[in-house]
Each structure stands twice: as C-alpha cells, then as structure tokens.
Amino acid sequence: MLFRSQKTFITNGQLGDLVIVVARTDPAAGHRGISLLVVEDGMPGFTRGRNLDKVGMHAQDTSELFFSDVRVPAGNLLGDEGAGFIGLMQNLPRERVSIATAALAAAERAFEETLEYCKQRQAFGRPIGKFQHNRFLLAEMATELTVARAFTDRCVTEHNAGRLSTEEASMLKYWDTELCNKIIDRCVQLFGGYGYMREYPVARAFADGRAQTIFGGTTEIMKEIIGRGHGGPARTGRSRCAAGGGHAATCAAARPCPRKAARWPAARCCSRPAGPGTGPHPRRPAGRSDPSLARSARPPRQTR
Ligand SMILES: Cc1cc2nc3c(=O)[nH]c(=O)nc-3n(C[C@H](O)[C@H](O)[C@H](O)COP(=O)(O)OP(=O)(O)OC[C@H]3O[C@@H](n4cnc5c(N)ncnc54)[C@H](O)[C@@H]3O)c2cc1C
Fold first, then answer.
1. Of all protein residues, whose CA lies closest to atom 20 belonging to ligand 1?
2. Would residue 95 show up in a list of annotated catalytic residues for this protein?
3. Which of 90, 141, 150, 195 lies at a 20 to 30 A Cα distance from 188?
4. Domain limit, last residue, from 64, 82, 100
C-alpha cells in the first residue's frame, strides 16, 4: 500500500521506532474502511519533523510526522483490513482511564505539597493555612479529591473487569483532568510568587497538567460523548437489542443477550430502532458516533 499524509502532535514522535497510522483504505466503506498500518523507522518517505516547543511536559517529545508516498508491505497491516476502527474502539476507554488517573495523581501530589507549604509559610504572624479563606480552599480541595478518587477507583475496577462504558471513561477523563487544572491552579495561588517559579514542582505541575484536558480527546468532545450516550429516555433501561436481549448493567430486558460475553456486547448487539423512546444505548462503547474517533480516523490536516 502506498500512502501520503502528515500528522501534527505525536507523542514520542522523535523516539518511536514504530508508528501506527490510522488509514482509510476503503473510503466508500465508512468505519469498515479504516485499517491500521505499521510504519517502521527507515521506511522511504517516512520523516520526522520538529520536536514541538510545548508549554510543559518537556521530558517528553511531541512531534510532527510526515509520510510522503510511503510504501507499506501487506505484512505491516495491524489486524485485519477494515478492522482498524474496532481496534481503536477497544482502546479508547483505556487511554482515557490512563490520562485521568495520571491527572488525579498529579492533583493529589500538588495538594499534598501545598498543604505542607500552608503549614510552614508564615504571613502576618501565622501560617497561611490558618487564614479562614485558605483553610476553606484546602477543605474544598481535599473534598473534591476524595470524591474524584472514589469515582476513579470505581472506573479502574470496572475497566479491569471489562465493563467500563465509553460514557463512563469519558466522564472520568473529563472530570479528573478538569479537576487537576482547577486544583493545581489553586495550589499555585497558595504558593504565592514561588508558585510561578519553575524550580517549584507546583509550577511545573501547572504547565505539565494543562494539556490533559486537550489530548486524548478534549473535554468538549468528552461531553459530546457523554451527552450522546445519555440522550433520550434510554436511561430507563428499556432499550431493545437486535439479538433479542439486554445488557446486564443498565438494561432490564427479559432475556440475557446471547452475545453478552462478547468483549463489546453493546456495540455489536444493540441496534435500537429509530422512533420515540429509542435513544442510544446508555452503555454503548465508542462507536460510529464517537467524535474523538471520527477525528482520529479522518485524514490528518495540513497545519502549516
Ligand atoms: C502534548 C500533546 C500530545 C499529543 N499527542 C498526540 C498523539 O500522540 N497522537 C495523536 O493523534 N494526537 C496527539 N495530540 C493531539 C490532540 O489529541 C489534539 O490536539 C486534540 O484532540 C484536539 O484537537 P485539535 O488540536 O485539532 O483541536 P481542535 O479540534 O481544533 O479544537 C479546538 C477547540 O474546539 C473545540 N471543539 C472541537 N470540536 C468540537 C465540538 N464538536 N464541540 C465542541 N467543541 C469542539 C475543542 O474542544 C477545542 O477546545 C497531542 C496533543 C498535545 C497538546
């Protein structure tokens, strides 16, 4: 296969020996026309652009990649031809969970450092943490982190059991990364001027964390996915399945779905007829309507 394209913002683009390209191999076949191609370092036509100058995360590179008439042998097709979309669907929740857990961990760490700082730093004769405003801020942060931790632990458990839905993975990514920005911003404020100095970890966390609501699907796209998954009265759990059954966690159909042991049962089994009261399945994994996937799958744009 011969292809030509380019992509901005690729994590580890300078270092990676293998690059998986999401390619439209049959434009007429919709999501069944997407395949994964493995491009190897040294293949003629494959070049790396700049290591992009990011605001934070300086320990990791983010690069541009160029593919100029790269010839990919048939053996470098990852999975079956046309099955690339399924592969992406299966891995998006995992990516969202990993980004979310990293964001929560960063927020928890910044909070711990800030708590310590608030005990030590004196202003007007007392530790800054003793001022009521700051004490309330610390109380709010402690509460928000505790709540987020409970949801995160639940999502990780569900993910490990193969039950985490796309909507929940998106909620987790949205919630933890936005919370991370909010918490670290407050921590910077509590550090005062020192919070803006890169020699302080909280300043670096501020710059590093900012991208988390952007990469792996932006917060707005996460909300799109959650919103679509919650559209209409489908949450009553009375959705119908083309295979004649329901799906354990949220559906209350009479018979178990004969295919529910499939890895992505809802995506494969549930085909709800259009009409009143037939919104999307509440637990449907990323499918045709996952906007972040649609973006991943479309040909990369010319950015400059
Ligand atoms: C550090 C870093 C590392 C990255 N690593 C990778 C990588 O390894 N691989 C990879 O493929 N990509 C990577 N990316 C790209 C990243 O996934 C995209 O930047 C991100 O998905 C947003 O896409 P965009 O930049 O094209 O923004 P745009 O899509 O142009 O979005 C701009 C704004 O419009 C909003 N918007 C767009 N569509 C909608 C909509 N439908 N409804 C409401 N709002 C909308 C967005 O939320 C955003 O606020 C990386 C980015 C960064 C910053």
1. 215
2. yes
3. 150
4. 82
